[in-house]
Structure of Energy-coupling factor ABC transporter ATP-binding protein:
Amino acid sequence: MNAATQPETTDAAVVVEQLVFKWPKGDTVLQGCSLAVPEGEFWMLLGTNGSGKSTLLRLLAGLLSPQSGEIRTAQPVGFVFQNPDHQLVMPTVGADVAFGLVEERLSPMQVRQRVEEALTAVNLLAFQRRPIYALSGGQKQRVAIAGAIARHCEVLLLDEPTALLDPDSQLDLVIQVQRLVKSRGLTALWVTHRLDELNYCDGAFLLDQGSVIDAGEPERLKQRLMQIQEVASESNRVSN
Ligand SMILES: Nc1ncnc2c1ncn2[C@@H]1O[C@H](COP(=O)(O)OP(=O)(O)O)[C@@H](O)[C@H]1O
Ligand SMILES: [Mg+2]
């Protein structure tokens, strides 16, 4: 771990300290995992398949509980899944964004304002009455993000949100999230294994064997991930 590149945790919107997590019947996934995402920044989480990235995001979102360690995040937290069809539940764009506000007991006027503001932020205001099924994958992901913005989320957690998108929508989405983080002062943690997406973040973490083994400059992390991917594909080749 390069301590010089890790921010002071007091300025961080997401802090994980010495986290330990194991599945009931499985191996330990996270073992002494620590990281801090500075407030108002866009960071990415890298690691090979099965290294625990999705598990860590679920812990951050409170969907799982760790055996030990500490998690602190600014609230509320919004989650964007890899597959938007697992997330969007209402028939139309506007209804889906409004659905996320049900627990806040707002007036119909406040709900309408929140929905319109959030859809404007992701450039989908004109799509408010469109059925979800008529949207592209990238547009669906933007509806999911609008849901988080409508709830006034401080932190956005995105688990491989571009995995099912074509290359153009993939880059559109990462650029849009970068812009939203800067314009709205959000903090985002984005899981990816796509090296080109690293060009848009402020920093990245590399997860390996249960803990963060490197953090900081996207370009340096990119080189390191490339080496790891080469080693992994070489050992696959040898074992097959
Ligand atoms: N629901 C589950 N029950 C038991 N083990 C799981 C479950 N989900 C994932 N795992 C295991 O946890 C480890 C980390 O998985 P995951 O967090 O999905 O990795 P990544 O997102 O980095 O590919 C893997 O060994 C995986 O098989
Ligand atoms: Mg995953």
About this structure: The chain has two domains: 3-75+154-239, 86-133+143-150. The chain has a mean pLDDT of 93. The radius of gyration is 18 Å. Helices lie at 53-60, 93-99, 108-121, 137-150, 167-184, 218-239.
